[in-house]
Design a protein that fits this description.
This protein has 201 residues and is α/β, with parallel strands linked by helices. It has 2 helices and 20 strands. The strands form 3 sheets. Strands 1, 2, 4, 6, 8, 9, 11, 14 and 17 form a 9-stranded parallel β-sheet that branches. It is globular and about 55 Å long.
Length: 201
Amino acid sequence: MIYSFKGHIPVIHESSFVHPLAAVTGNVIIGENCYIGPGAAIRGDWGEIVLEDGVNVQENCTVHMFPGKSIVLRESAHIGHGAIIHGANIGRNVLVGMNTVIMDDAKIGDESIIGAMAFVKAKTIIPPRSLVVGNPAKVIKEVSDDMIAWKTAGTRLYQQLPADCHESLREVEPLREIPENRPKQEDFYKTLEEYRKGNKE
């Protein structure tokens, strides 16, 4: 669902995928290989919202701001299910955990990881490579090389997902019985603990 607002029409690169149950409104620019999940709302009615290449905004997220503000989600930013970004700028290759809230004029430094359900207060400045948790959110340590490598690998899956959706996502009637030849799904991603264990072996 793509809407113009006061003459602003969203600009969305053809390689990106916006789910039909998402809403993108007004002054929004979406770069290459971005994924916008069902239920997400990206509302550029009061200011500009830019999603650089490879950003994903997952199911039921909200991206908005106060009037007169403009915000950027930098390359490979990863916005987890149910998160709210309100007037905040998100750095390159950042992971924003599920149900996190990041408030106005906050700035999240590159390659930071914001834990699930964190609350980042307005005007908070998070340095690059910070691991942030809590309500109110606090930096607890620096993001390690293996943590950011794991995050980057997960984001690559979301950067492939738009092409997969363009190729294979279709609205269908459900089956009424489980077929004998039901395809199996790939096991192609590990938890952080599994990733660390694999790297040590």
